[in-house]
Amino acid sequence: MSARDEVLARLRAARDAGGASPPDVARDHRRTGAHAPGSAGAVDRLDETLTDYRATVHRVGGEDEVAGAVAAVLGDASSVVVPAGLPAGWLSAYDGEVRTDDPPLSVADLDATDAVVTGGAVAIADTGTFVLDALAPDQGRRAISLVPDHHVCVLRASDVVSSVPEALARLDPNGPLTFVSGPSATSDIELDRVEGVHGPRRLDVVLVGPM
């Protein structure tokens, strides 16, 4: 009997047995992190892990400082794409061209745009990850966060949690979710790192909250 035949025979036997109760699985894994959601500890931890992933973090104390931070991060970018529901005040200090993705821009138009600015649904401090929800008006469809070479994401302290289970509890699984951990990067067999292969080469996070 070949290995393939043996595997198929085992599958058939398991199917024919039927009615067998599944084994009990321990579900006592940790569901919360060391820091409470939105706390200074969670925000500091997120700053640390984002930096480990080669994102650049810009801390601001309140919403009134977001516009200045975003304009500074965009620097000499001549154009930026934004989702239709992005707060208008976030770009009030930016003097380049703002392209709203409504109606949706073509891939060619997105590729010709210098940067994208979005909000975020939730950020995970322990992993240095933030999540974009395509159903949210300040985050928009997935393409706008993947095609431009520079992504600027504004995250509020209230959306920062410590652990993955805490983040998943806040997300709607029925819509497209994009998990972002640093700039897009890959490494070949010799571990030579190349950035910008599957998404933005540069990632800046404006983190609004306790400093």
From TrEMBL:
<dbReference type="InterPro" id="IPR037171">
    <property type="entry name" value="NagB/RpiA_transferase-like"/>
</dbReference>
<dbReference type="InterPro" id="IPR024185">
    <property type="entry name" value="FTHF_cligase-like_sf"/>
</dbReference>
<feature type="domain" description="LUD">
    <location>
        <begin position="112"/>
        <end position="208"/>
    </location>
</feature>
<dbReference type="Pfam" id="PF02589">
    <property type="entry name" value="LUD_dom"/>
</dbReference>
<protein>
    <submittedName>
        <fullName>LUD domain-containing protein</fullName>
    </submittedName>
</protein>
<feature type="region of interest" description="Disordered">
    <location>
        <begin position="13"/>
        <end position="41"/>
    </location>
</feature>
<dbReference type="InterPro" id="IPR003741">
    <property type="entry name" value="LUD_dom"/>
</dbReference>
